[in-house]
Amino acid sequence: MSVLEARNIVKVYGKAEAEGATTALNGIQLSVTKGEFLAIMGPSGSGKTTLLNILSGIDKPTSGEVLLGGVMLHDMDANSLAQFRRKQLGFVFQDFNLLDSLTVKENIMLPMILEKKSVSEMEEKVQELAGLFEIEDILHKYPYHISGGQQQRTAVSRALVNDPQIIYADEPTGNLDSKSSTTIMECLEKVVKELSTTVLLVTHDVFAASYCQRIVFIRDGAIHSSLEKKSERTKF
Ligand code: ADP
Ligand code: ADP
């Protein structure tokens, strides 16, 4: 079953007929199945950010369609789209974006508070994820009092609380040393293996991409090639 489907996505910045218009994406076709761990790689300027913005509904394609869980993203009005995104998408950013004025637990709960979930439901979810990512002992702490690895695990927990269809991870290892990169990638691998949640990673980092089952390479706004692992144990 396809969780995410991009159909012939074209994105032109600026008026197409005007001088200086840039074709950032030129007919992207992509189908991501449930529980897949997929990386999109490509050089700077190849269209990765544009694609991620379109796949998450932040930006509209010039033409083409994105279906998330069978729902056409760009047909929704702004309010429905915002609500849909809060429920169906989880984001993990390069610098994690934790709020310093909130504890780890409050950071994790925030997306559920916005969804007006009940206190018992929130408590249960926090405990489940804190157990999975081994952060039970730091739930009452503030982000500046925990380690980098713990911050990452908090950010991944927060991305998962509303049981999203898919997690988008944008250069999660971008600023990290190799030990921290390993931590975040092991976390995302756990998301796929233990929660069967789909993860789409956008990265420059070959080490990060090596955790994925499939790597799609984009170049000049088009899919250039892709690589797939034949089985769990195979390397690329
Ligand atoms: P990547 O994330 O792979 O570096 P981007 O999606 O940022 O690639 O950029 C793809 C192309 O689109 C580049 O040529 C870039 O200059 C252009 N581009 C990106 N954003 C804009 C924008 N807001 N306006 C005009 N051109 C843009
Ligand atoms: P752990 O012991 O859990 O692996 P550390 O405290 O040793 O984590 O931090 C590992 C690395 O992560 C350090 O190089 C640190 O600079 C980096 N790091 C810590 N917090 C952040 C953050 N918020 N964003 C990016 N990198 C971070």
UniProtKB/TrEMBL annotation:
Keyword ATP-binding: yes
SUPFAM superfamilies: P-loop containing nucleoside triphosphate hydrolases (SSF52540)
Molecular functions (GO terms): ATP binding
PROSITE patterns (alphabetical): ABC_TRANSPORTER_2
Residues covered by the ABC transporter domain: 4-236
Transmembrane segments: none
Cross-referenced InterPro entries: AAA+_ATPase (IPR003593), ABC_transporter-like_ATP-bd (IPR003439), MacB-like_ATP-bd (IPR017911), P-loop_NTPase (IPR027417)
Keyword Phosphoprotein attributed: no
Keywords, ordered alphabetically: ATP-binding, Nucleotide-binding, Transport
Family membership noted in the UniProt record: Belongs to the ABC transporter superfamily.
Protein name per the record: ABC transporter ATP-binding protein
Organism expressing this protein natively: Oceanobacillus luteolus
